[in-house]
Write a structure and sequence with these properties.
The complex is a heterodimer of chains A (355) and B (271). Chain A is mostly helical and 355 residues long. Chain A is built from 16 helices and 2 strands. In chain A, β1 and β2 form a beta hairpin. The chains are: A mainly alpha (355), B mainly alpha (271).
Chain lengths: 355, 271
């Protein structure tokens, strides 16, 4: 994912087309030959799966035999309806997973972006000793296996773990993180009895009171984990962008008497806008896909408060054998991600024109 | 003066937050279960214990490691070869349909990986590949990102070099093999590192492409270890030691090539 942003220097120009006619046909043959492995693998394991899953998402396949056998029937939009329209546990679980992931995105994206920008700016100052050491330290979690990191956090956030031991030094009794399903917005209100006005009504089978719970305490530990892991990569993107800025404007502002704070908001940040939007887009795309950490740490528990659409799609299919619904969840997630990406692109273009 | 001091203080504090968990992990791997629970903040063992490493060696861990090595080495070789071939074709060979293919690869690049989990299983199952090494390896052999990186790189190689080879009568394959590739070492090293790191750390694909415990890689194996297939207490030293061992190969590569990671990845593969 991170390598998407590789900014290669401007490409060398292609040779003029004239005068190369003799090599044209040979180029074509070799070209397709060179591309064959890529087209085969991507076609068979990226494109074909999408087509096949589209069929499964409108079928009643239960995982036995081939989904193309005559015993499998077309059920139209039933699987999608079960997730979005029909009252029941399926709809409620899906709504819960969207709520959980929504809060996850809401917390992780701003936190990782702000922290990454802050670290990049701190590292960017002239005459800093140990710059390479700090960069190496901050980026290391990004290259480490998500499974290994999750295991470490399982220990750090266990009820007798490092985090709670550290909190105890300050006289705070930490919660039993991964076992605590209480939403932090509810906790902020003192965990009151749910008011009837909010429990009576709801959306997608989930009461308004449940929608407004905030991330659960368990989800908060996953939020901390992911922010801790991903910040380093985004920091390097900001850092690379900062190095490409010319210092002229900054110096001009300095001469004009702008203080550090003003220079950051008025000079540096506007110039970083393209990188900022890139980081936000990659952040949104990545956080809507959170799977590994949930699979390793919580499997959706406690009380479904760490359930995410990606994990629900997996568990519905592989454990619940509702392959049609599992595939439908994957497509709905796809739509969510595409919509967020498009909104982000649109916002980027809007800002670009205004200048 | 005071500001600079403050900057260092902040950086050192954040660095501590980044390094301390790994120190705790290292120390806890050598602690006893009781010591780990009683002294979770202590970055060294009260009493050194090596028993978890023996336990891991006696269980399936070596098998997982062997699978991980086999799968990632094969995938890395495949990606380096196939990604460069495709990247070169897209960057330098002229033929009809080239830009269409590139557009298609960009589109594939945009498909979120997690969305493909269930679909990938469906195809592997349909092909009768499910639960085999080929199911674990073949779908990873090419990655659109790598093709993109190599294409970007090849476009920066001066055209004059290739023209000279062509005038000397070298065909496209020869030009690629003996002129362009030797010039591409930095990009090839970057691609090797990224491919190895990516396939070594891969989890979701190994969840949907197999279920046989004998085919567990380190990621799927350690994940099953954590979800309690061994049972009996929390066994944190054992789990943390397993996580530590699985981190080592990537950590070694990272510290040897750290500049390539922290600069190359983000500032252009040619540096």
């Amino acid at each position: 994912m991170s390598t998407l942003v590789t900014s290669a220097p401007a490409p060398a120009t292609d040779p003029p087309r004239g005068g190369r006619r003799g090599t044209g046909r040979r180029d074509g043959r070799i070209g397709w030959l060179f591309l064959t492995p890529t087209l085969l693998v991507l076609g068979l394991f990226m494109v074909l799966p999408i087509v096949m899953a589209l069929w499964v998402s409108v079928s009643d396949w239960t995982g036995n035999g081939s989904p193309f056998s005559s015993r499998v029937h077309f059920v139209g939009g039933d699987n999608y309806a079960a997730l979005l329209a029909e009252p029941g546990l399926t709809r409620q679980n899906f709504a819960t997973s969207v709520r959980n992931n929504g809060y996850f995105v809401l917390f992780v994206v701003p936190l990782q972006t702000a922290l990454a920008l802050f670290l990049a700016i701190t590292l960017h100052r002239k005459k800093l000793r140990g710059r390479q050491f700090f960069r190496t330290a901050f980026y290391f979690p990004t290259v480490t296996s998500s499974v290994a990191i999750s295991v470490v956090f399982l220990f750090l956030f266990s009820s007798t773990g490092t985090v709670n031991a550290a909190l105890k030094l300050f006289g705070v009794d930490g919660p039993s993180w991964f076992a605590d399903p209480r939403g932090i917005f509810h906790l902020a209100l003192g965990d009151p009895a749910p008011p009837g006005a909010l429990t009576g009504h709801g959306f997608l089978g989930l009461s308004w009171w449940d929608w407004f719970s905030g991330p659960s305490v368990a989800m908060c530990s996953i939020i901390v984990l992911v922010v801790w892991t991903t910040t380093g990569g985004f920091m390097l993107m900001f850092y690379a962008a900062l190095q490409n800025l010319s210092s002229d404007v900054d110096e001009a502002a300095l001469i004009d008497g702008a203080n550090a704070w003003q220079r950051f908001w008025r000079v540096t940040l506007p110039q970083l806008r393209p990188t900022l939007f890139l980081v936000l887009t990659l952040g949104l795309i990545g956080t809507w896909q959170v799977f590994d950490q949930v699979y390793v740490l919580s499997r959706g528990n406690p009380a479904n408060t760490t359930l995410t659409p990606a994990y629900l799609s997996y568990s519905t299919s592989f454990i619940g054998k509702q392959w049609g619904q599992g595939a439908a969840i994957a497509f709905l997630l796809f739509v969510v991600i595409v919509v967020f990406t498009l909104v982000q692109r649109w916002a980027l273009r809007e800002r670009g024109n205004r200048r | 003066m005071k500001r600079r001091w403050l900057g260092y203080a902040v950086l050192v504090f954040v660095a501590a937050l980044y390094i301390y968990p790994f120190l705790i992990q290292l120390a806890t791997s050598f602690k006893t279960d009781a010591d780990a629970t009683a002294n979770p903040l202590l970055p060294w063992p009260r009493q050194w214990s090596f028993s978890v490493f023996r336990t891991l060696a006696e269980q399936d861990f070596p098998r997982w490691a062997a699978n991980s090595v086999f799968v990632s080495v094969t995938v890395t070789i495949g990606r380096v070869v196939f990604d460069s071939l495709a990247g070169y074709a897209l960057a330098r060979l002229h033929f009809r349909g080239r830009s269409t293919v590139f557009g298609a690869i960009l589109a594939v690049l945009a498909v979120p990986g997690v969305v493909l989990l269930i679909p990938k299983f469906l195809v592997l199952n349909q092909f009768g590949m499910y639960d085999t090494y080929s199911a674990m390896i073949i779908p990873l052999l090419v990655d659109a990102t790598g093709v993109f990186i190599m294409k970007q790189f090849f476009e920066t190689v001066p055209v004059s070099v290739e023209e000279a080879a062509r005038i000397d009568g070298a065909g496209p394959f020869r030009t690629f093999w003996s002129v362009v590739l030797p010039m591409s070492k930095p990009a090839l090293i970057t691609l090797t590192i990224l491919s190895f790191q990516g396939s070594w750390n891969e989890l979701p694909h190994f969840i949907v492409s197999r279920q046989d415990p004998a085919l567990n890689t380190l990621t799927s194996g350690v994940a099953s270890l954590v979800s309690g297939e061994l049972g009996q207490g929390n066994q944190f030293p054992l789990k943390l030691a397993a996580a530590l061992l699985m981190t080592l190969p990537v950590a070694v590569v990272y510290f040897v090539f750290s500049r390539r990671f922290t600069q190359g990845t983000y500032e252009g593969v040619d540096k």
